[in-house]
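Quick sanity check, Cobalt transporter:
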Amino acid sequence: MVQQVTRGIKISVETTFEGTFYKNYKMHFAFGYKVTIDNQSKDSVQLMARHWKIQDALNTPEVVNGEGVIGKKPVLKPGESHTYSSGCLLTSPFGSMEGHYQMVNFTTTKKFRVKIPAFKLSAPFALN
């Protein structure tokens, strides 16, 4: 698990290898990740958007931007947390992800970024 705190918002990420399969005559490696967002600040915040950089060992980085996470824009009061699971496909057994969330502080009405720490994606059978 990797963790990082930005402006009182703690991000924790756990990864899993889900398996391999063929798609369009090409081998793909499926990875899952679970993110927990803990509001350790004194203000209520809302997650508005996400930005991911997905690095596959065999390809150029893929950038993914979007509103919320898995169709939600969670509001977190002080002491609350939100956990969600998602995944990605790579064309190699190794890769990494990192990024940030765009948040808004309800007390100050200011937007701010919360860093998502870099985490590795690796198929266990490919490690030596």
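Posting the structure with no commentary besides this: The chain has a mean pLDDT of 95.
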